[in-house]
């Protein structure tokens, strides 16, 4: 075997190894949504949302106020994206100026398959609530109670934080 053949084989093996490493480190994309709506859910008048992060692998599901004011009271992303391992939310109570934050480990709270589901949160004073919204429409026959999120009027939803409601 010549030096040129050995070098070619070595480069091919290196290329294969790099390709396999890239595939292994790329997060799995699942079509689902992350959103929040402070006006519809009733918390926008009482708090300023300062920062949020649904996982750390997708920039579109993260925001931080550069000036300490607010990142807004509504946002949403829908489509193929990594399922977040955590949800971090930081907010300020308008009445007192107190700044609060909460980080929720989602790894054992989300359904195994988030396809076509949505993750949303509601802030009620000092408490953060997190919900999974399923793709199932609510019908007139459903007896499911309304939750803090307005989305529960239209689609089946359940609380995953602070309590883990049965699905």
Automatic annotation (TrEMBL):
Signal sequence range: 1-24
Arranged from A to Z, the UniProt key words for this protein are:
Signal
Provide the species name: Hydrogenophaga bisanensis
> What protein am I looking at?
Apolipoprotein D and lipocalin family protein
């Amino acid at each position: 075997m010549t030096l040129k053949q050995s070098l070619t084989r070595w480069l091919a093996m290196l290329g294969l190894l790099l390709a396999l490493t890239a595939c292994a480190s790329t997060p799995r994309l699942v079509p689902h949504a992350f959103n929040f709506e402070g006006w519809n859910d009733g918390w926008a008048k009482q708090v300023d949302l300062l920062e949020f992060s649904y996982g750390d692998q997708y920039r579109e599901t993260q925001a931080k106020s550069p000036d300490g004011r607010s990142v807004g009271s509504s946002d949403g992303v829908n489509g193929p994206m990594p399922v977040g391992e955590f949800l971090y939310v930081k907010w300020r109570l308008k009445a007192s100026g107190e700044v609060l934050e909460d980080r929720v480990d989602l790894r054992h709270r989300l359904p195994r398959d988030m396809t076509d589901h949505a993750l949303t949160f509601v802030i009620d004073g000092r408490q953060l609530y997190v919900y999974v919204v399923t793709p199932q429409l609510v019908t007139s026959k459903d007896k499911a109670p309304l939750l803090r999120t307005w989305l529960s009027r239209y689609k089946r939803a359940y609380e995953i934080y602070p309590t883990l409601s049965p699905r």
